[in-house]
Predict the 3D structure of the following.
Amino acid sequence: MSQAVVRPFYRHLGIEVVEAGEGRAQVRMPANPDLLNGRGEVHGGAIASLLDAAISNAARAALAPGMSSATIQFTTHFLIPGRGTLHAHGLALRAGGSVVTAEAKVTNDAGELVATALGTLKVLRPR
């Protein structure tokens, strides 16, 4: 299992990396009134950030130690409104020498699928 780094942006949104290793990652974002839209649902931007956290942690967990990644694009599909604590599961589908392809799914506490993403991440080598 890889060591998860607490990032300031994650702290700001309340995103917690639950587990990351072997090309997989689990992250969650507890309910927070500051993240809600005018309808009382989790804002799509916060959900997109959770998806990005899941794909980026999964990508890093698929790479050799000391290597990192940066999201260069991802496509998001919002399926139902997000309410309560949201859970994201990321999976690196393929880790190549220069690019990682990863996917993520967000569910609510009831296990309902809230959103999905497919992303491409650039492999970053240590300097």
Q: What stands out?
A: Helices lie at 8-13, 44-62. The CA atoms of residues 29 and 126 lie 30 Å apart.
